[in-house]
Design goal:
The protein contains eight helices and two strands, in the order αααββααααα. The chain is mainly alpha-helical and 153 residues long. It has a two-stranded antiparallel sheet.
């Protein structure tokens, strides 16, 4: 299973908004530059996150987005399921009839366990816990280390 950019960028948006939870709203263009994410793609992700109540928007010159949900309650597993569905590592786990060997296959249960373990692990990681382990520095939490955060504020 390979995660789509949507899942990865959604986590980045939530991390950025959690980092600024007590401050002013953040404009989508700032998030786009900080996280090196295409603006149009990010707008789609933000729409989905807003629709599901994770974030809220503010209009006007100081408008932007703020995290509405509790970062302690948002898990990576939840976000992956939202953007990917609950997909299995291999197709035969969800659709054993799709494989001629599934009745006698000894590996299928290993893949089912691995899928379950992956989601159980992702469910233990919250937005807040990642910020805590990175000391609030998203350069440590994401792959955006080539940016200087001060450039955007």
């Amino acid at each position: 299973m390979r995660l789509s950019s949507k899942s990865r960028y959604a986590v980045r948006v939530l991390l950025e908004l959690a980092r600024h939870k007590e401050g002013d709203p953040i404009q989508v263009g700032v998030i786009s530059r900080l996280q090196d994410t295409p603006l149009k793609f990010l707008e789609q992700i933000i729409r989905d996150l807003k629709k599901d109540g994770y974030i809220t928007s503010f209009r006007g010159p100081k408008g932007g987005y703020k995290l509405m949900a509790d970062p302690e309650a948002i898990t990576f597993g939840e976000i992956v399921r939202k953007f990917e569905g609950e997909s299995d590592l291999v197709e035969c786990v969800a659709d054993p009839e799709g494989c001629k060997l599934s009745d006698e296959c000894r590996v299928r249960n290993v893949w089912a366990d691995a899928t379950r373990n992956l989601y159980e692990s992702l469910d233990t990681i919250t937005i807040a816990s990642l910020l805590e382990t990175s000391g609030g520095n998203l350069n440590d939490a994401c792959d955006a280390s080539h940016f200087k955060r001060e450039e955007f504020y």
